[in-house]
Amino acid sequence: MKSNPGALWEQSLSLIKGNVTEQQFNTWFKPIMLESFNEETQTLLVQVPSPFVYEYLEENFVDLLSKVLSHTFGKGVKLTYRIVTDMANHLTQVIPADPVPQIGHTLTRTRANQSPSVLDAAQPQPIDSQLNPHLTFSNFIEGDSNKLPRSVGLSIAEHPSKTSFNPMFIYGPSGCGKTHLINAIGVRTKELYPDKRVLYVSARLFQVQYTSAVLHNTTNDFINFYQTIDVLIVDDVQEWMTAEKTQVAFFHIFNHLFKNGKRIILASDRPPIDLKGMPDRLLTRFSCGLIAELEKPNVQLCIDILESKIKRDGLSIPSDVVRFIASTANGSVRDLEGVVNSLLAYSVVYNSNIDMRLAERVIKRAVKVDDHPLTIDDILDAVCTHYNVSSTAVAGRSRKREYVQPRQVSMYLAQKYTKMPSSRIGKLIGGRDHSTVIHSCSQVEERMRIDALFHDEITSIENSFKLKE
């Protein structure tokens, strides 16, 4: 009497469990659900929770799966995946597993078909981590805008071998402290674990190194080197949006590091979903750990940052000047530091005290200050006036055309004229998520491209709030 498919699947899981680590089994195999087995076609259908799990199984355990299933279900069994692509809307996709060599057949491994391995390289030599030792947690001041990323980053630095929150993807606008935070994680890790191979690299430098490796036919050496890193920190990954070959190289490096429990930390000026031009298989990897947003610091946090720098540098700046700088530096930590450095230089060169008059003089030269910075409310007022609707209706849940169009236009103009990320714009306009904002902007841009009257309409709205500046 033949065993039922459920019993055969449990037997398969038992065999798999004996051939992988407990962590690998719990992460990649335990979530798989048996759906059906067709004896006539010898087809086994299983469900996996995401495209990332499917890709990882196919890339790393396809041979093991083939051998186990052939043993339990019989030779010639065909594996098919049902992949959950949208949990909320119950959307799935059925994909057959890639064909693998029959058991007993050995694939000749050559440099052309063999993934680069650390075993091919010499014993890793000590490396320069490329970290800035001055960017530490001690001078990364905590506030509401950075509390979560800072706390998680410190935890990662203290326990880099744990697999939680891997990778950590940090995003936020320029000047919010991304580079400082990822450096601080690396510096703290090296302090606690001197033997760890920690490397900070900008996305642009990584791309230059890869291009050079291709030109000099040393691509394997390039990939082998990065596969020896214990904590890899990459800044400004949005630089890779049009670099397809660099994306492929990093994809293989990412897979190797992730599979071996190495730590990956990425920083960008936008969330993964907004990285246009990057393949889904890379974006799913960027998103499978923790995505943490760094917002621009508010005035109080800017004051705290300034006071910390002033104390650290032994300066003397009146409190009214500190508050003035904090309120006019556009929430940029980089601008804050630039203003303080400029104030110090001016006071030394001109032998003058640092007062409000000097601060105003420096601010005009060091920071682009808007007399009336454009806000979401300004944009909503202009849009609602143009369409003769209320801001309450636009921010509401109604899907009537007379409200949907002003809502989409408001989101488009907010993204164009403010420095807020899509997620923040969505929250301020009716509590929507960032995907709604992205969709709205695309709709408006597409219609402007083909509808001249609508394009003129948007221009008219823009002119109306520009006149108020």
Radius of gyration: 27 Å
Supply the number of helical segments: 20
- How far apart, in Å, are the first and last alpha carbons? 83 Å
Mean pLDDT across all amino acids: 80
Q: What's the number of extended β-strand segments? A: 9
Low-confidence stretches: 100-123
Written description of the protein model:
With 469 residues, the chain is α/β, with parallel strands linked by helices. It is 51% helix and 11% strand. The chain contains 20 helices and 9 strands. The chain has helices at residues 5-17, 22-29, 51-60, 62-73, 147-158, 178-192, 203-215, 219-226, 244-259, 280-287, 299-312, 319-328, 333-349, 356-366, 376-387, 391-394, 401-417, 422-428, 434-450, 452-466, and strands spanning 33-38, 43-48, 78-86, 91-96, 168-171, 198-202, 231-235, 263-268, 290-293. The strands form 2 sheets. Strands 6-7-8-5-9 form a 5-stranded parallel β-sheet, with helices on both faces. It has a 4-stranded mixed β-sheet with strand order 1-2-3-4. Helix 11 packs across helix 12, helix 11 crosses helix 13 and helix 15 crosses helix 20. The longest helix is centred in the last third of the chain and has 17 residues, at 333-349. It starts with a helix and ends with a helix. Residues 100-123 have low confidence and may be disordered.
